[in-house]
């Protein structure tokens, strides 16, 4: 996060550049409150920025402290002094960062980070995570889907548990923060409570879960770990195979986990035994960096539909068929793709709704709708042949499910009209649908308060509200929402980059995330 110019514990009137110069953005003009919709994230609330010094000496200090490994931040200003303050910084930031780097080296590939469901690297990660959980005073176990659990119960016995989790698997050529940050931040916060002798003061059970698979890289099935605990994973999923023909069940059996249909059913948590689910995750988008805040509360996770569009025309010779006589599916597909872009950029101009959506839905679409063509293929794919068929995919996401279905209806209608005009055959298949998940308002308010409290301790200044934003990416919280109420906290990442080795979170922002979870846990005492 932004590095303070001075961290003397005796001063309450420090100057801070809250947004580090490492992120090449200034938030000095703090009397302005611009309305922001950027890419696929909706900022519900923009805040007054933290106190920022405008003196030249402060600017110089900020520039020199922009490194992600800053040693100047002080976690716990105003609330803790001496050894406690140093302890918070050492565990919540320094140790957490070291553990992120250590886990980032646990890979099945030598040249890049790759850790998939039940791979050798995954098994090594399980051992490391259990060790860290036990170091924090948690009782640990691995369930029949390979999820790692660490739990502590209050002195008066087990109560409905607060679950805090994220995923330990990665994509191919991954960054080291996606998933791992949420697990390590929770473990570190609990370790601080243990060291301070407060772990036994919790009024409810706390369970940290490192989910075995969220990305779905190996078996092309997302949320294997969290879906099993939420009770929404079909038994047939155990028979899905990877590229080598190994089933999910085989992969578990190879690692001494014998899972059958009855075992899978037993994994489902009783909703009465769970109080709620919280997930800390990197934003994977640019909004927090843009507004200059290290933390944001997630309003909800966008619903998603994936389409497969097939356009068929008349295959022919590129040199002998006159332009006026062609039935070219490639140019037809190009027109469909440009139409999709126009509809998604300006839904108000295209949406008919037919009485199904109100002004709120239309406004939500205008702020949150994103559409992507990620794949396109042509047959026979030769430079001197007019294609006979073109196929492309559409990924459409928005926080409003009613609006999503309305857009899909209108978009499909207009696509078919274009195909008819061009004398092309067009088919549109819905390959995947996932409803939006709205975060629990009360849980979100608690996370917001915890984040504000953490930032106040870091800066020594009273803070306004932290940003509230939408997630366009899927998270384990989507699966867990079928089990219990959910809340999420986002952490700023450089450039909004994720699923890449360039993925990066400032060390100070790692510390801020840990302190926010600590504040949240202390509210459960």
Characteristic key phrases:
disordered N terminus; single chain; endoplasmic reticulum; 525 residues; alpha+beta; hydrolase; 9-stranded mixed beta sheet; 15 helices; ArgE/DapE_CS
Describe the overall structure.
One of its GO terms (molecular function) is allantoate deiminase activity. The protein is α+β, with helices and mostly antiparallel strands. The chain contains 15 helices and 18 strands. It has helices at 56-64, 82-104, 120-135, 180-195, 224-230, 248-253, 261-267, 287-291, 329-345, 347-350, 359-368, 401-421, 441-459, 476-480, 507-522; strands spanning 37-38, 41-42, 139-142, 148-152, 161-167, 206-211, 274-282, 295-301, 303-312, 316-317, 370-372, 376-379, 385-386, 389-398, 425-434, 437-438, 468-471, 486-491. Strands 3, 4, 5, 6, 7, 8, 16, 17 and 18 form a nine-stranded mixed beta sheet that branches. The longest helix has 23 residues, at 82-104. The radius of gyration is 25 Å and the shape is globular. The relative contact order is 0.17. The model is unreliable at 1-73 and 76-80 (pLDDT under 50).
In terms of per-residue confidence, which ranges show pLDDT below 50 for 5 or more consecutive residues?
A: 1-73, 76-80
Helix/strand-derived category reads: alpha+beta
Q: Compute the gyration radius: what is it? A: 25 Å
In whole angstroms, the N-to-C terminal distance is 28 Å
GO molecular function: allantoate deiminase activity; metal ion binding
Subunit structure: Homodimer.
Domain Peptidase M20 dimerisation: 303-415
Region (Disordered): 57-78
